[in-house]
Design a protein that fits this description.
two-stranded parallel sheet, alpha/beta
Length: about 170
Amino acid sequence: MYDLNISWDEYHQSIELLAEKIWQSEWEFDRVVCLARGGLRAGDILSRIFDRPLAILAASSYGGDRQQERGKLAIGSQMTMTGDKLGSRVLVVDDLVDSGITLQQTTIWLRDLYPEIEELKTAVIWYKACSNYIPEYYVKYLPDNPWIHQPFEKYDNYKLSAATRNCP
């Protein structure tokens, strides 16, 4: 497996390309549900581009020292959103799909808790070949399943200390 390093420019351009694919499909949706942490930035941007409300669902399946060990999927017990209704047409956004477990299980979770959902589609930036889940929208198919290094990962090990603080 090789590493794929993504710059901020590439990251933002990819989200814009994802928005174009969704727009070209002419599918109308009521709300964006982003899966935090990975899908948080993409979900926020898509929410702004399409002028749709954003909901946030925490989900995590990676851990370890470098956040590269796949473990058991943990889904938050609640979703954060404004308003009382999720809507009947929901776009679920994550950064990538590799095993497919996160998208598969969170879409089941959403349908179980929100029976008003009539149509649900998923969107990711990167779709790895090893996935058992195929998203409706994606920007780049990755047949070699690389490890993706996103630009914000530098903050995973960024530690503040009193010595580095510039407070008056």
